[in-house]
Amino acid sequence: MPPPLPGPLDHLAPLLGHYGYLAVGAVVLVEDFGVPAPGETMLLAAGVYAGAGRLNIVAVAVIAFAAAVAGDNIGYLIGRSGGRAFVHRWGRYVLLTPKRFEAAEAFFTRHGGKIVTVARFVEGLRQANGIIAGTTGMRWRRFLAFNALGAALWVGLWTTLAYLTGSHITAVYDEIRRYEPYVLLAAALVVAGFAVRHLVRRRRER
After folding, report:
1. pTM of the predicted model, to two decimals?
2. Calpha distance 70→53 (Å, rounded)
3. Is-contact 50 159, C-beta < 8 A?
4. Could you tell me which of 167, 154, 155 has the C-alpha nearest to residue 48?
């Protein structure tokens, strides 16, 4: 018998119980190029199943990491080939409205490639991350490096916590989300600090 999943994760039990690793990979993949899917929730549920011995935690992490990187790269190709016009025409069908896209793009442009890593943990930015990178013309190798780092941190954090805490993961998750704005603010300050230091160095060199 599969372990009972706590409240918010319970609706994923039939999907995860029937398809296992395939469900993990598919849901994480499609979420990461803009399709509204519970990728992060699936990751938590799979971690709980792994903690109960129903799945292998290493396999869950590897599959989720590969799916996350692949999904964002599909998004990158969409943004690179279709550009802003494609997003404005079709984005509303995956909840990426022109207004939301422009706000995300402005934020992305201001903070550069480093935000690709942090974006993995932000709802909305996680789904639009690759598309925005492609649209703004970021070099693919640079995007791939930051994206892979973000995916590794994201998968590692949630699978490990779910694996260790089991049915208590929702309480832990809610507590972490409660402090998310402060973490993002700290990350933004760090990025701003690097940018200021870079500008100061350039002026001194001149």
Report:
1. 0.73
2. 27
3. yes
4. 167
